[in-house]
# Entry
Amino acid sequence: VVIDDVTAPVADAANLADIIMECEVVASDVPTPTATDNCGGNVTVTNDASFPISTQGTTVITWSYEDVNGNISTQTQNVQVLASPIANVTFDDGNFTYDGNVHEIEVDNLPTGASVGYSINPTTGQPNGAIDAGTYTVTATVTPPASAVNCGPITLTATLTIDRAPQAITFDPLPVASLENDPDFQLQATASSGLPVGYTYTYTAPAPPATVSASGWVTLLTSGTVQITAQQPGNDNYLPAAPVTQPLQINSEDTSAYRVSIAGEVYDNPDNEIYYLIDCNGNKDQVEVAFETEANASVAPAPEFVIGTPAPGIYRQEVEITSQDGSSTQTYMVIVEKAFPFFDIVEQKFDNVLLVNNDPDNNGGYKFTSYQWFKNGRFIGDGQYYSAGENETDLLDPDAGYSVLMQTEGGETLQTCIGNVTLEFDFSISLYPNPNESGRVLNIDIEDYRVSSTNPLNIQLFSLQGALVKQWKTSNNTNPVRLPDNIASGVYIVSCQVGNHKRNFKLIIE
# Structure
């Protein structure tokens, strides 16, 4: 009896249930079905699927049931792969403006049960956020719900940008300042950011009417206008502010002459009457005058002018200073005196009288009423003339400096330069040989003058230290004298005097 098994196994379930999973289906997710063979033998069950199945949609797998005699039957089953529950999560870039608060970006469409973790680069101390302006990369790691057993986390990145904020400066108009009455002050401009405001300034005058420090301290210097600009350059979080400029007008009521220069001579803070005497060593026909005042004060006739001095006399120039604001004036008087050259107004009579020329027709038009004579600066007389004395031997001193003050009928006092007289009947003297030696003869000869017993020649020999070494007295015009035998080598002084006439010589002893 031959029994053949020609019937394939029969599946136990008429239809296999669909397998529905998210992300993928692995072999363990698909239960192996069973089948029964009519002969009761073992049935081998296989399928044609390649696991895992990750293609979204429905995949049909075929199950094969084979008995021990090679009879095969098949059955199909649907395997459906669904998208991950976090597949629709989005993570978009975020752009903000700095405002001092924390700004964050977050994922959208996060399903229930899913979770997310953030990190940021560069780090800010916040997992997903920043305060300061800048560009940051935020990474979001999204983990699906626990029910999505076959789904893994996904990583998303987005850019967080915080732009620098704009700012504005508030700088109110500045009131007009008074140079004399208002103190130096601090500017008060502010920036909406709260950042400190800095200052610069410009001016068109040759010198600044005021100085302004970078921090805003204003120091008033002169009248004028200063353009002050407040600025804030911004920082990492704020854009630069638009600069704001305000003019500062400084007015002055100052009418002072700070400094006056007359022919190069400087008078600091002068009195209202400024006197200058032209140096007798220079015959100036004019002098330059310069007034230094508050920068914008006006000076009449001019800040710089010339006073002509063609002849001896007193010259005046009134100067009026008007303050910059026009509120006040002050008057100064510049007085320049050109002294007489001594012998332009004084005549020498013989060798002992000096006389002031008081004839207006030939002295420049002056009529004098009083006089003061001086010798080497010492008062010696108050007449129109000065006499050295009544005797023949009373002579003017050729080594002295004479001068005279003269008052005019109008009350002005004029003066002369220092004069040195030359005696018309003076004598000349010669001394030889020079150098000389101790014990030798020294010749002393007088010319143009008569020496007599009543008007003798006195000769004295002094050391340089003033010690008297030897002296002689003679009534002759030609005088050989013998030097001491023990006189030491060196330089000595020989003094020769006849009446008021005196001459000194250096004598070298070898």
Q: What stands out?
A: The helical segments are 342-345. The chain has a mean pLDDT of 93. The CA atoms of residues 187 and 216 lie 5 Å apart. The longest strand covers residues 57-67.
